[in-house]
Design brief:
Blueprint: E1 2-4, H1 9-38, H2 41-57, H3 60-64, E2 68-76, E3 81-87, H4 89-112, H5 119-138, H6 142-160, H7 167-198, H8 203-208, H9 210-213, H10 219-233, H11 242-245, H12 251-257, H13 262-272, H14 274-277, H15 281-302, H16 308-330, H17 332-336, H18 343-377, H19 393-407, H20 413-427, H21 436-439, H22 442-466, H23 484-502, H24 504-519, H25 526-529, H26 541-558, H27 560-563, H28 576-598, H29 603-624, H30 640-658, H31 662-682, H32 686-709, H33 720-746, H34 754-757, H35 760-764, H36 769-777, H37 779-802, H38 806-813
Parallel strand pairs: 1-2
Antiparallel strand pairs: 2-3
């Protein structure tokens, strides 16, 4: 049911949810000095996601009934770019995660971050990111979505580099931004191709006309480029290398960006565009194949990590691969269409959505648990940890719940979605499409092997940290339980981990079912696509695979020291990080070499480069396109006084080249300017003539005044070859400008632009066309100039305010 209203609370609510974090982020720099004297800044920021979450929760029953709220706010309608808010089942899931987990992360950060930190910067960046993510999931227009998409990259860069005094933090932020922005630009190209194919930027309209655009030549290139953006943002193989380095960010950032929000943005794009590209063989193989490889490679590398956050980083890569592969498997349902037999394959997408939520709960809790260990013990290195179970019992409980859920064990929510994952990879073997029968067996094999490694690193996370003997000589602090405030957020997430296991169908009906309707909009009933979730299905193949995972996983965990040398086979020489570093180094060296070649410090060289490029590009294009066409039959006659002015300008220009004094050259340049003013008078443009006279008079006077006090310099003695080269280049430039001017006047293949401005009075209310062009039609350009000045002014104001006040400096010294 589509609810499309001009006004009304639901529409205003969606707009508020997007803008509210940005408004609050803008207020933080203005208010933080006063707020920090009252209480921790985080308490005020915490109200933002809580309010947004409560606003969203009001519409869960309506979304569960199949309603969709949409409204368009006109932005640039002439280019089909409008701010269209879109609230449906799929955007509801992500919005609840963004605001719900965001609330818990901010609460956690209040107790995790010291008040000596730059908290106003931290919370400002966090709210910017929150608003950008909400903009991504609520946007129906591709260009608006892309704008928010890149804003997530910028804000995440600021968050990852929050501890900018650390070299690793700066490097991790640069790597994350480089890879994700590169993918974002590829996705932008894909969006533009979709626009060319469908004639609209609206995702809804593209989905509605998908049968028309499937045969377009740009359909497959658009598919590939959009997947590039999704894969880079969601850290899919081989673009996963940015995520482990991003763990240099503070733990609240890792818990928010890298478990519940930013890395899920690529997942959202795949889910949102499944109705468009689902059913294509290349979409199926890329999404499911890349997802499975990422699942295996992430879990395999997580086992070898000694830093707990690095372990969780690779586990996040692995879990994202699992979700991605499920969406790929579920895309088979689009190929077959609505049929009873295809329901089995659509359940893979249901499992993906289910695990999306489950992963956010247990991984968020685990990141916070690791942050607690690091905060209270002083290290995250598993080689220095052990024996913390008795000293940190609550943290240990959180680790067990989160770790067992990640390993896919009951009674935790990860077990339910993992079993559904096994069902999906087993069912795909019987699909008679996309040549799956030839490689169908690889799906369950890769899934099972990756699940074994998932079990192993989950046991390492728990066993190496909390069991064994305490190593007081290897840790920096005396271990003790964290403050209650730091434990609240992970405990709440753990309650969800357990609660979802016992009441999964509440989540399935109110949250997952409407999201399935968004992924399969052509299917008549979303309720038929939503399976009833059971914790027990009897002794079937999925349960046997789980038993195998536990048995083999325990064996590998117990014998880890014996087979750990296997990782030495994978030399760092051939690691993806090594290739990335080489690529960056090659780019830097190449740019330095190229820059040194043209940045010679000689102004003449710079003009030569500019003019050669100008002549080659402009004259070359006009010759290639046969645009040099002249017809002088209809030209006005040239009067004698016009010829006199032309000869005066020619004489002044040539004499200027041979003038020995700077004052003489400047006066000759003034002759050129005044002659142009006379031409404006002849051509009946007195306002332009007056402007030219004023500007020429002022500039000539200023130049003469400046030259009077400049010291004399020795004249530059150039070789004859250089002089002749400059003369030839000057002739070519002058000829190009003259011929282009004549060609534009006589070009008759297109209507002249001036015809549009003939209606200046009707379009802009101005009777003077020239003034109207300068004051109204050129207003957008003027606005950009004003914005530049505003930004410069803000920069100056910021620099003047960076110096702390005397009372603040005294307070900090105390």
């Amino acid at each position: 049911m589509l609810v499309q209203l001009v006004g009304g609370l639901p529409l205003v609510t969606v707009l508020i949810m997007i803008l509210f974090p940005f408004v609050c982020a803008a207020l933080i720099p203005l208010l933080y000095r006063r707020l920090r004297r009252v209480a921790h800044l985080g308490w005020f920021v915490l109200s933002v996601p809580i309010i947004l979450f409560l606003l969203l929760a009001r519409y869960i029953p309506q979304i569960a009934e199949g309603k969709v709220f949409i409204h368009t706010y006109e932005w640039i309608p002439s280019f089909d770019i409008n701010f269209t808010t879109y609230l449906d089942g799929l955007s509801m899931i992500f919005a609840l995660l963004i605001t719900g987990v965001g609330s818990l992360v901010i609460l956690y950060s209040i107790f995790y971050l010291s008040t000596k930190e730059s908290l106003h910067h931290f919370y400002c960046y966090l709210l910017l990111f929150m608003g950008a993510m909400l903009g991504v999931v609520f946007s129906d227009n591709l260009m608006v979505l892309y704008t928010f998409w890149e804003l997530t990259s910028v804000s995440s860069f600021l968050l990852i580099a929050f501890w900018h005094h650390r070299k690793a933090s700066r490097a991790g932020a640069r790597k994350a931004m480089t890879i994700t922005v590169f993918g974002g630009l590829a996705m932008l190209a894909g969006f533009l191709m979709l626009y060319v194919s469908a004639g609209t930027f609206s995702i809804r309209e593209i989905v509605a006309n998908v049968e028309v655009i499937r045969d377009h030549t740009l359909f497959i290139p658009a598919l590939l480029l959009i997947l590039m953006g999704a894969f880079t943002k969601s850290a899919q193989f081989p673009f996963h290398i940015w995520l482990p380095d991003a763990m240099e960010a503070p733990t609240p950032v890792s818990a928010y960006l890298h478990s519940a929000t930013m890395v899920k943005a690529g997942i959202y794009i795949v889910a949102r565009f499944s109705p468009v590209f689902g059913g294509e063989a290349i979409w199926f193989w890329l999404v499911s194949g890349v997802g499975l490889v990422t699942l295996f490679w992430g879990s395999f590398n997580a086992v070898r990590q000694t830093d707990l956050k690095a372990l969780l980083a690779y586990s996040t890569v692995s879990q994202l691969g699992l979700i991605m592969s499920l969406f790929g498997l579920g895309s088979v349902g689009h190929y077959f269409g609505y049929a009873e037999s295809s329901i089995l394959y659509t359940q893979a997408s249901f499992a993906a959505l289910f695990h999306l939520i489950n992963h956010s709960t247990f991984k968020g809790a685990l990141f916070m648990m690791v942050g607690i260990v690091d905060h209270e013990v002083g290290t995250r290195d598993v080689r220095r940890l052990g024996g913390l179970m008795a000293l940190m019992p609550v943290t240990f409980t959180i680790a067990v719940i989160g770790g067992f859920s990640m390993a896919g064990l009951p009674p935790f929510n990860g077990f339910l979605s993992k079993e559904m994952f096994f069902t999906a990879v087993l069912a795909i073997r019987d699909v008679e499409a996309f040549s799956i029968a030839d490689m169908g067996l690889l799906f369950p094999i890769l899934a099972w092997v990756a699940s074994i490694f998932t079990f192993v690193y989950s046991m390492i996370l728990i066993g190496r940290t909390f069991f064994g003997k305490l190593k007081p000589d290897k840790i920096d602090k005396k271990p003790h339980e964290a403050p209650v405030g730091m434990l609240i957020s992970p405990i709440v997430l753990c309650l969800f981990v357990v609660g979802i296991f016992f009441f999964p169908n509440v989540l399935g009906h109110y949250i997952l079912e409407p999201a399935m309707a968004s992924i399969y909009p052509t299917f008549p009933s979303a309720s038929e696509l939503t399976p009833h979730i059971h914790a027990w299905h009897g002794f079937n193949a999925e349960l046997l695979m789980t038993f195998g995972v536990v048995i083999v996983g325990v064996i590998l965990f117990k014998t880890f020291d014996k087979w750990k040398p296997l990782y030495r086979v994978f030399s760092q020489k051939y690691a993806f990080n090594t290739y990335y570093n080489r690529m960056i180094e090659f780019g830097e060296n190449s740019s330095i070499t190229l820059t040194k070649r043209y940045m010679t410090g000689n102004l003449t060289h710079y003009f030569v480069y500019i003019y050669v490029f100008f002549v080659a590009l402009i004259a070359g294009y006009f010759i290639w396109s046969e645009a040099f066409a002249f017809n002088f039959a209809q030209d006005s006659a040239v009067e004698s006084y016009e010829l006199i002015l032309v000869f005066v300008m020619m004489f002044a220009a040539v004499w200027m080249l041979f003038a020995k004094g700077r004052v003489t050259a400047m006066l000759l340049n003034g002759v050129l300017g005044y002659s142009i003013a006379f031409f404006f008078v002849i051509f009946r443009a007195p306002d332009l003539a007056l402007t030219q006279l004023v500007v020429e008079s002022v500039t000539t006077a200023l130049f003469l005044l400046s030259f009077k006090y400049l010291p004399d310099v020795m004249p530059e003695i150039a070789r004859k070859r250089v002089k002749w080269s400059n003369a030839v280049l000057s002739i070519f430039v002058g000829a190009t400008v003259t011929l282009v001017g004549l060609a534009v006047v006589h070009y008759d293949k297109f209507k002249p632009v001036s015809l549009y401005f003939n209606d200046a009075y009707e379009l802009a209310g101005g009777s003077n066309i020239v003034n109207t062009i300068l004051g109204d039609f050129r207003a957008f350009d003027t606005m950009l100039e004003v914005v530049v000045l505003l930004i410069a002014g803000l920069g100056v104001y910021t620099l003047t305010k960076l110096k702390p006040r005397k009372e603040e400096a005294d307070h900090e010294n105390q």
